[in-house]
Every structure is written in C-alpha cells, then in structure tokens.
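During the second half of the funding period, the structural biology subgroup turned its attention to how the target accommodates small molecules. The most pressing case was heme C, which had performed well in the primary screen but for which no bound structure existed. We therefore specified the complex as follows and requested a full 3D prediction, including the ligand pose.
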Amino acid sequence: MVRAIAILIGAGFVAVLSWALFWSIQGVITDPPAPTAVDEFHLHPKEVELASNGFFGTYDQRQLQRGLQVYKEVCSNCHSLKHVAFRDLTQLGYSAAQLKKFAADWSVKAKQFDPKSGDTTERPNTPSDYFPTVYYPGTGNPPDLSLITKARHEGPAYVYSLLTGYRDQPAALLKKFPDAKVPDGLYYNPYFANLNIAMPPPLTQDGQVTYLDGTKSTVQQNAKDVAAFLTWAAEPNLPTRHAYGLAVLGFLLFFCILAYGAYQNIWRDIKH
Ligand code: HEC
C-alpha cells in the first residue's frame, strides 16, 4: 500500500516536470528569442602563429623582449602587471645588471610605508619588486594583464585579435539594430564580448614602437609580440611543462615496451 502511494507521488512529480519541460521547449521553438547585435556581429579570435603554440611550443626570447617593450611603451600607461616581478625578466635573457637598471628606471615608483612618520613614500623599484600598480583615471577599468591570456578563451589569439580588431561600426549592424549605436566614449571592436570597449585603440600606427632588434614594427607585429609576452607573463614555465610532458610520454612508451617484453618472456613456454 505504502509502496503504491510512493509510486503515485513519484509519477505525479514526473508528470509535472514533463509538463513544464514540454511547455518551455514549445515556447522556445514557437517564439525563439530575437537575435541580438552580439549574436550576429561578435567574432571569434583570429588564429595567431606563436612559438608557444602546440605540444612542442616554447618561447621565442627575442619576441618576448619585443613584447615587453610594447607593454612598457604602450600598455603600461593603463594596465598593471602585478604578478610579475622585475627579476622574472631574467627568463627573457636580460642580465642582473640590466634588470637592476630597468627596474630603477621604471616610471611608476614603488610605494613604501614609513613606520616612523606614518607616511607612504616612493622609492625606485628593485629587481625583487613586482611591477607597481598603475593608477588609471580614464573611462573603464583596465584589468591587470598578468593572467589575462589565461582568463580569456583562447587568450593569446584573443589579445592579438582585440588589439588589431578596431574598426568602424558596420553600417549593416546599425541598419538591423538601430539602438545598438556605439555609446559615447566607447570603441567598436567585434572581438570584445559586448562589441563596445572602453579601451581606446592602443596601437594605431606602424612604427609606434621602435624595435631594437631590427624587426619591422607594424601594428600586427606589435600586437603579436605583446600577446606572446602576456602569454609568458601568465605562464612563465610553459616550456618546462611541455618538456616534462614529453619526457613522461617517452618514459611511458619505454615502459610499455619493457612490459610487453616481460609479458612475452613470462608466457614463452606456456600455451595460452
Ligand atoms: C589609455 C589606456 C589603455 C591603454 C594604453 C591600453 N589599454 Fe587595454 N584596456 C583599457 C581599458 C579602459 C580597458 C577596459 C575595457 C572595458 O572593459 O570596456 C582595457 C581592456 C583591455 C583588455 C581586456 C579586454 C577584456 O576582454 O576584458 C586587454 C586584453 C587589454 N586591454 C590589452 C591591452 C594591451 C595589450 C595594451 C597595450 C598594447 C593595452 N591594453 C593598452 C585601457 C587601455
């Protein structure tokens, strides 16, 4: 008897849920939500060839140095890089003396609390300091870039596409969605999640940064180099990780061969 009641209650639940499911699906099919400007005009990041891509990927030190230069001369006016320390840049091939100077010359100084006077004073950065946080009074909130390539889907390609993706708002968009005009103070960029970004185009002309290694400085190249640099900032040990991965796979392969040999040996005289 109790069992029959339990089954009935269960069947009641299933019926109510199926009823709700049916009507919600029916609603979506007969009256689908209207497409938005984002649905139609948002673009997936472009492919970008970087040395760190793929299974065997590693970093191209010279590219990272160029990327650091782009970050320093362009992005660092607005964006912090607070999880990277100056001394981490040894991985980019700089000597201790170069880094000491680089840190000391960095325009935003390190803050220091003086316990005697209670004041916060400034001092030049040292290699063991992290990149100091940047104050940004303009529109929007520039995110810290230390982990941005991890925080966004297809990070390196996204950064590259975003930087090279600024354009005029397409007429077709306004025709179809007259209310979707780019708000004042924002810029149209189809790679940004909502199409309108508060960041003014940071790379506007070729030659904006003068490379020391002779590489031609175009907007595309600057964007690619800074994307590579930010990939490094977010994951400095990627080459080690890839090398370990390969070594482990090699070991497993070797172990498989050994195990197969052992199996052949043990079962040699036994019919099976
Ligand atoms: C004039 C200041 C300024 C400069 C220079 C600048 N940015 Fe930005 N950036 C911003 C602001 C403001 C935002 C926030 C935009 C928003 O949320 O609408 C932003 C956002 C971003 C984002 C995040 C987009 C997202 O998905 O949230 C990335 C990545 C980025 N900037 C990269 C760069 C790089 C790389 C450079 C240097 C080449 C750079 N920015 C130079 C102001 C700046």
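Two results from this model are relevant to the next phase. The CA atoms of residues 22 and 176 lie 32 Å apart. The two ends are 57 Å apart (CA to CA).
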